[in-house]
Hints:
Blueprint: H1 2-5, H2 15-23, H3 38-47, H4 58-66, H5 138-148, E1 154-157, H6 164-173, H7 175-181, E2 185-189, H8 197-208, H9 216-225, E3 229-234, H10 237-240, H11 247-258, E4 263-269, E5 279-282, H12 288-298, H13 305-313, H14 318-331, H15 335-345, H16 358-366, H17 369-372, H18 376-386, E6 392-393, H19 397-400, H20 407-416, E7 421-423, E8 426-428, H21 431-441, E9 444-447, E10 454-455, E11 466-467
Helix pairs in contact: 5-6, 12-14, 18-21
Amino acid sequence: MEVFTGDVPFRNSIAAAAIASIVVGERPERPVHPGFTDRLWTLTQQCWRQEPQDRPRMDQVIEQLSVPPFNYKTDISFIGNYGSVDLVPQTTTEQPAEPPMGEISSTTSPDTPTARGPSIFYSSPPLPQPPTNLFGRNAIVDDLLSLVERSASLTLFGAGGIGKTAIALALLHHVRTAARFGRHRHFIRCDDLVCSLDGFIGRLSDAIGVHHFVDKAQLRSHLALSPPCILVLDGVDSILDPFAPGAVEIATTIEEFGRCGGVCILATSRMDTEIPDFCHIEVPTLPVDGARDTFYGCCHLGRSAAVDKLLADLDFHPLSIELLATAVCETDWDEPLLLKAWGDGGTSILKASGSRSLEDNIQSTLLTPTIRVLGTTVRETLQAIAASPSGVQESKLEILFPNIPGVGEAVNALCKFSLLYRRDGFVNMLSPFRFCFLESTQTLIYPVGGGPTHDSTAEDIQYTRRYVPTPGLSSFHQLFVGG
């Protein structure tokens, strides 16, 4: 009780009066704290029974503390597609924060116990700011909340720029999450982390405010005995890539931490991490109205059918739409200037947004160990898929591209990391990615039997049959697309 409240029992009584109260069978009242569950209160009452022989043994106490408070691992089903839902997310407000546990002040050394707890605790860093808008995403947030409130662990995966981090931050700042976990909400960036177990433990320890010299066993014990907490591990594909050193150890550690009672882990990733006992949820592109609300809410343009078509050409990809809106604001384009710039420059107009870039997002995926080990096959495969707006029939990959060695393996890896996706037997890629590849390679698209007619840009020209005379590729005589 002292750990949760920061106060000794019977704090308003002198020692003699407290002893007298205990002798006659009086006990402290249950503390008001979100982490002090019914099961923990029952265990506490058992431990202070009047007769010593009636109290549980220490091994029984440890066993009780090791059992998750809810049977949340066995009844979680896959969450479906949210593309048909469009609700404006409610404004979330932060719950008043509890005083930080074991905060180190200028007059306190790291080894000095504090009034709030043992010296292992430090102040954890503040959370990143929540997203400024989340149009079209509140349905998935609401469904995730129902899992998080049961301390279920889950993975959000999807293409780069699809909005995984924004959804995770909205969830982390939501009033219901704050009510459940209080100040025990932590955001851990993993995409810039050296892939090693020690590095991961150190980053996680710093984020939750624990002395960074703890090892894996100490940190697991701390999590198991702490109040309920939520850990957002952002960008774990960089440390869980199957070809990355230390990935297996880190994945096992995340799985073990997720089994600690009261610990909720939310991992974001471009690949499905396949961590056992985690709920795996793929984040889709924005619904139509959500995409439009996002664009028009970020810039000054009025709604129009022409701009709506442009958003559809971007496959309602969140990052691409935000970059387009930013370009409009930075250049002060009106609608005719925007449409002209798009027709002239395609995705090059999406580069005017500081550190965020569509090409950088794609490039970071191409640099992952799983992708790099495949060599030039990856880029040749991407060029081939990009040349077909309607995708390539997967069963004919080897027939269509006999000169691309390992094209099937490359497609599997690219689908795993969400640069490609499968649908109805075809392999395809999101339009913004496709435009980037076509514009960067300047591949020419020819109708069957004819010469060069058009440089591949953002414009989707409809031909009944196409082929791309790129080195390493066969003709597309057997590939039917569009039309």
